[in-house]
Amino acid sequence: MAAPSRIVALARHTMRRDDDRDGDFAHGHHKGRCADGEYAAGVASTGRIGSSRTPDALYCRELG
Description:
Number of domains: 1
Helix content: under 10%
Largest sheet: 3 strands, antiparallel
Number of strands: 3
Number of helices: 0
Distance between the termini: 11 Å
Structural class: mainly beta
Shape: flat
């Protein structure tokens, strides 16, 4: 059976916890991270015309 997974979208706002102990490591830029006990199994981005070609989403999977 596959480990639980989830998508963390980065396109419109920052997806981080309010109690994030790492601080704001890129002020003014969108960012996201997988939760404790998860790892980033994939990164999605787009190359469409007019895009900044930066990551749009993380695919997070549970460790183990």
